[in-house]
Structure formats: C-alpha cells, structure tokens
Amino acid sequence: MIKTGINLSPLISADLIRLLINHPDVDLRWVAGPSMPAEGVSAVFDQLQGEVGEVSVDADFQAIDLYIGNDFQGLEKFLNEQPKSKAIVLGPQLRPLGYDEAVLGVCEYNRKALVRGARLALQPDIPTILGAIALMPLAKNLMLNAPVAGTMLLPQASMRGAGDFRCAATTLSPVAFKPLREQILEQLQTSFNAPIEITAIENTTSHFACAILTVDIKMGLDQVRRIYKEFYDDHRHIVFPTHAVNEAMVHGTNKTVVGLGHDGLGRLIVTVGFDARYKGAAGNVLHLLNLLFGLDERIGF
What we know:
alpha/beta, 25% helix, 7-stranded mixed beta sheet
C-alpha cells in the first residue's frame, strides 16, 4: 500500500481525497493544512461524511511514502530521510530552489521519466497541459515552424493575471508558457522559436477547460490525424471524438478530447478540452501517483 499524506487547498483536496480513498493501492494516512480543523476531514468536506473514516488531520512525514501538497516545509527532510519516498508538488516551480530532479507532470510527455525512478513530480498548470497536448505531436514531427495563436477557455481559479473581470479576455504572458516552451516543445523540436500568442477567456459557469489553437501547417487533414493518433496511441486518457469537442464528453472524468480541423485559410486548428477539476487537478495528481509507483495508469479512475 502507498501510505499517502495530503496538504492542499480544499478545492483540490475534496476531489483528490475521494479518488484516493477508493484507490486499491493507497492508504490515505492524513489530510493536513491551515484550514483543517481538529474535528476531522469531514468537518471541512461535507460531501465526504461517512467516507473518510479515521483519516488524521496531523501531518506526519514519517508515516507516509508519498507527499502530495504545496507546503514545502519538511519536504527536503522527508525526501532525504526516506529513500523510497516520493512527492507530487503543486504550486511554484521547484527547480529554482535546487530541485533539479523534479519532473514536469505532463503524463503524456514524461510518462517514461515518471515510471523509471522519478521521486518528485510537479503538477502543471492548466494552460501548460492544454498547450502540451495540443502541440506535442507537431513538435515531435518537427512541424512547429510558424507562430501559434488561439484562445483558451479557463476556469476562474486558473486564470493568470486576469484581474477582476467577467466574460472579458486577457493575453496570457510569455511567462505562462515558459514550462510548455522550454521543458517540452523546445526539447521535442530544438529549432522551435516561434511566438505563442494565446488569449484567455474566463469560464465562470463550469470547470471545462478548452484550447483552440491555430498553426499554419500545409498538410492534409488525414495525414495530421494519423500523426496525432500515432503519438497518443497508447495513452488511455486521450480521446479523438467523431463530433465537435464539448464539455459533456469529459465531465467528471480524467479524459482529454482532441479535435482536428482546418480553417478557411487552410491552417490547422487543434481543439483540446478536459474537466479542469480532474485532468487539470485531482485526476492528473492520481495519474502521476500511478506512474510514480509503476501502476496501471487507469487504476482509481
């Protein structure tokens, strides 16, 4: 059993706790955090009453094999003192703090690295996951030779630098795509240097996250579809729908839908969508857990 401790915000924790307590290989030892009262986990998460049992609210690094959280206190000591321990960290990038071994947790890109001995995984933000899934097959085939433009529909909590607005748009800064560019696209295609210009629109009605990206690639759609399907052939959470991408296809799942088409000028349009509560948050964490411990990536979903 994977003895696990969680220290996350309630928005993420409720979905993640439910996934973990039903995972056949996970023993959830504690759920801690500044908002966790002594009365127990169900005092914060009403929807988990009757499910969480005797899960402790006291963080004890010595009692776990896996730490999931965004509180770095004790993380280095935890990793050093327990050779077989692993961690999934949300929040700021850790590499500037000296954690050079940290693996960016885009499962469709770093699956081999995660399975083959990684100890520390970084949960990506939603724009990084959307952009990676949309563009990786092109970069792998050296086809990213033009600017990437488009729109991302992002749930309110994932907007970066959006300020106070509703139904307005903002241009995501180059910093928002730094992990996508440097840690994925430029490694798949070393010649990639084109700009990425994405407008973000806040989704105030649901957790649906979606990217519609345009790239000037003169290639037949059948050939493009073959490239994408070959790239994602053994990734169980990627789906190519026969209808237009929509929220109903992914609601409450860890699946990502990918649609391909051409615009009126013959440019490639890639549409990617997923449920941000799962694929963009709790579900991706569970996916990372399965890979870090060498389990089938579908277990627990």
